[in-house]
Amino acid sequence: MGKEKVPVTAAIRLLRAERVEFTEHLYAYEEKGGTAVSARELGVAEHAVIKTLVMEDDQKNPLLILMHGDRQVSTKELGRQIGARAITPCTAEAANRHTGYLVGGTSPFAPRRPLPVYLERTILDLPKIYLNGGKRGFLVGLDPQELIRLLQPTLVQVAI
Does domain 10-156 have CATH number 1.20.120.1760? Predict the structure, then answer.
């Protein structure tokens, strides 16, 4: 890709306003490619590419869960840890409505409305992570400790 202009999304505006040090990474987005494609395109381990998943509890309350790209979320364990009877992924339409971002471009930063954020605890063991900057084909790299500062997430251990 040539020198493309980096998008200025709500997430990027928040990171800049909070004076977060981050790197910008554009790549060729592939429909249904997920973190495997972004990790390959950036030349980083898929474990360091963090996906932002929009789910809802049994009361239909939306929530965000941040997970390693090469792991899945145990929804049963997540429900147990947060006191919900059931956790299910949102439909693409509901995820878009809750966050204001298109699926495949969902950033945990600056969603349309505040949502509870759950963070897989082991993400904090990494020196640098890559997560969505608010647009398909656009990741930002940053220190995972910034997630604690900006999002004040609840730490969980739900990776499988």
Answer: no
